[in-house]
Amino acid sequence: MSAKIDFRLLAGGIAVLAGGIFAIDLLTPVGVAIGVLYTTLVLLSMWSPHRWFILLIAAVVSVLAEVGFFLSPGDPNWMAVSNRLLSLFTIWVAAILSYLHKRDQEERERLILELQDSLDHIKTLRGLLPVCVSCKKVHNGQGYWKSLDVYIAEHSEAQITHGICPDCFTHYYPKTAETSVPVK
Q1: Could you write out the DSSP letters of every residue in 65-91?
Q2: More confident residue, 177 or 98
Q3: Which residues, 6+ apart, have CB-to-CB distance to 23 below 8 Å?
Q4: 3-state secondary structure of 146
Q5: Residue 25: which of 68, 86, 76, 80 has the closest Cα?
Q6: How far apart are CA 28 and CA 43, in angstroms?
Q7: What pLDDT sits at residue 183?
Q8: Distance (Å, rounded) from C-alpha 171 to C-alpha 159?
């Protein structure tokens, strides 16, 4: 599971870092690829509990990168333009991959909770079960003997219904068994 971070603290930290990177961008000549530093803010936004925050940060830092490009000292040339375009590309690749990772992480956490909930509702019988050879009562481990159907109902999700097998029917009702059609 992911570590819980206060959203306001994260947003404030990203805002401060964005201001610092923007200041460096303004002071750096236009041809230097300072815009790539904005990608770190997108990656930091992955700690947010909200997926949309990643895309918001990507949009904001894209605007800052463009404003920084136009306000930086020096004349833009083809290298400066290509560096800034590569910075924007890096920002958005990081944003999309971070968004997809966050979505998959949320789905994984949802499935884990669903699995844990399912496991909480499963009752199983395990181990050795002492059963009386004669009456078929089950020893419950606390000194008491309970009928098999009560024991199974208490220790599993099984619903017990009653019937009679052909052998017992013949044994207990021999006269009726001679005249009736056998049930299979």
Answers
A1: HHHHHHHSSS---HHHHHHHHHHHHHH
A2: 98
A3: none
A4: strand
A5: 68
A6: 23
A7: 55
A8: 26
What is the residue range of 33's domain?
7-120
Number of domains in the chain: 2
Pair of tokens at residue 100: 């997809």
Please check whether residues 107 and 139 belong to one and the same domain.
no
Token pair, residue 16, equals 């401060």
Cβ–Cβ under 8 Å, residues 89 and 35: no
Report the distance separating Cα 125 and Cα 138, nearest Å: 13
Are 74 and 17 in the same domain? yes
98 is a domain residue: yes
What gap in Å lies between CA 8 and CA 50, rounded to an integer? 12
b (16+ CB within 10 A) / e for 151-165: bbeebeeeeeeeeee
State the pLDDT confidence band at 124, using cuts at 50, 70 and 90: low
